[in-house]
Write a sequence for this structure.
């Protein structure tokens, strides 16, 4: 038997906590704690709640509210059977909704009611200008996308309104860029979005899982092959939380995959604009039995 680690699928958690409510085909309500991602069973323990509106059999909108009723996010999704090859990976990782991909507007608001961010998706891919604002309504950043790739200007401002970053991209590659301190002085350029990194690199994480995963005897007897996908959050301190299954195989394999991933070392945390952020990962583990 052998284990083959597929490529990892990282993504900034903040990009997937999207979430509204108008009369529609049907609605479902779910409650969350202060993380906006951990479900709680009752309203009295919740800080947020989401309402899923199913407009029809193929399209839905998810709205997220504070427990007091202030809308903080609204996101549109489109159901797919087999998404376009170009968008399959992005749709899978960034929608966080099984069988659905982002399609249409994704909008967030600060809890004071001011607009926080706007972006548009088509068949799972971000396209056009993504914008974000500070809580007082001043612009924070603007970045241009084409088919999920950065294309054109990427501008960031300090809260004072002074430039913090000016950059230009082509096919997701940096062409030219500068960063500035609050006084307008040039500083060393740094990446705006930085993914978490495992000590020694992602291959070390794959190696660890491969060496420590114990193929369940029940799966061996049944001749089970396939891919189990484990999701987890890399916290701001590099620890892992919310370890679970995003693509299931069998109960025994799922449990063993979770056990193994929980044994990974602390990661170097991800960052956004130089500040640590929580990042959600999906790690596929491909299992192949050989004679």
């Amino acid at each position: 038997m052998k284990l083959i680690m597929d490529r990892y699928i990282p993504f900034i958690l903040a990009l997937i906590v999207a979430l509204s409510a108008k009369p529609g085909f049907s609605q479902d309500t779910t409650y969350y704690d202060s993380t906006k991602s951990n479900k709680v069973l009752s309203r009295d323990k919740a800080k947020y709640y989401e309402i899923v509106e199913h407009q029809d059999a193929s399209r839905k909108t998810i709205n997220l509210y504070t427990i007091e009723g202030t809308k903080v996010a609204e996101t549109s999704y489109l159901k797919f059977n087999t998404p376009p090859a170009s968008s399959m990976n992005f749709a899978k990782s960034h929608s966080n909704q099984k069988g659905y991909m982002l399609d249409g507007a994704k909008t967030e608001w600060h809890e004071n009611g001011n607009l926080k961010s706007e972006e548009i998706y088509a068949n799972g891919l971000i396209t056009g200008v993504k914008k974000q604002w500070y809580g007082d309504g001043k612009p924070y950043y603007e970045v241009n996308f084409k088919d999920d790739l950065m294309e054109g200007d990427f501008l960031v401002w300090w809260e004072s309104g002074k430039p913090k970053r000016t950059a230009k991209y082509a096919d997701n590659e940096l062409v030219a860029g500068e960063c500035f301190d609050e006084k307008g002085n040039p500083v060393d350029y740094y990446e705006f979005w930085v993914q978490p990194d495992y000590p020694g690199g992602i291959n070390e994480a794959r190696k660890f899982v491969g060496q420590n995963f114990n193929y369940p005897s029940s799966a061996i007897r049944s001749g089970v092959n396939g891919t189990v996908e484990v999701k987890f959050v890399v916290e701001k301190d590099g620890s892992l939380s919310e370890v679970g299954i995003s693509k299931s195989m069998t109960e025994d394999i799922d449990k063993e995959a979770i056990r193994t991933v929980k044994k990974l070392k602390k990661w170097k945390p991800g960052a956004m604009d130089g500040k640590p952020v929580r990042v959600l990962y999906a790690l596929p583990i491909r299992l192949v039995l050989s004679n």
